[in-house]
Amino acid sequence: MAISLMLLRDDKHDIQTATIAFPSALSVERKDALTDQIQRDWFKKALLKATDGGEDDQTGRLPVLIAVTYTDGDVSGSASGIYDVIWRTEAGMFSFGRSLKLEGLKLRQRGGDQAKLDALWTRQQR
């Protein structure tokens, strides 16, 4: 079971900072990644609550806004985009509720902001 997702990186671009923003409706604070990973525990409780009341076994996509600063040799740069965290829930054993598994991370669009992120999440919830 994946407990984190690794941000893509390459040998030419060292990630200096990474900030991950979540849809406002989830009430999950923006996270500054101290590593190059998105941790499941950052949003697990909020996502399970948002998807409660339906089937135990669900799949979906959580849009997140990722902004990074990086270096390319002596040059600094920045980039941002909205990515989908691909997730799956399963019924827990006995009466332990549902579990959340992370399946992957996929670019949805380059750029973006909190308003766009919130609109995408709202549209998905209909």
What does this structure look like?
The model has no long low-confidence stretch (mean pLDDT 87). This protein has helices at 44-50, 114-124; strands at residues 4-6, 14-21, 31-33, 37-39, 58-72, 75-91, 98-110. The protein has a 5-stranded antiparallel β-sheet, with helices on one face. Strands 1-4 form a two-stranded antiparallel sheet. 17% of the residues are buried. A hairpin with a 2-residue loop joins strand 5 (58-72) and strand 6 (75-91). The chain contains 2 helices and 7 strands; from the N terminus they run E-E-E-E-H-E-E-E-H. The protein is mainly β and 126 residues long.
Concise synopsis of the structure shown:
The chain has 126 residues and is mainly β.
Low-confidence stretches: none
Into which percent range does the helicity of residues fall? 10-25%
- The span between the termini is 28 Å
Q: Main sheet: which strands, in order across?
A: 3-2-5-6-7
The number of E-state strands comes to 7
Return Rg in Å. Answer: 15 Å
What form results from the Cα inertia axes?
globular
Strand residue content? over 45%
Layout of secondary structure:
Elements: E1 4-6, E2 14-21, E3 31-33, E4 37-39, H1 44-50, E5 58-72, E6 75-91, E7 98-110, H2 114-124
Antiparallel strand pairs: 1-4, 2-3, 2-5, 5-6, 6-7
Features:
126 residues, two-stranded antiparallel sheet, globular, mainly beta
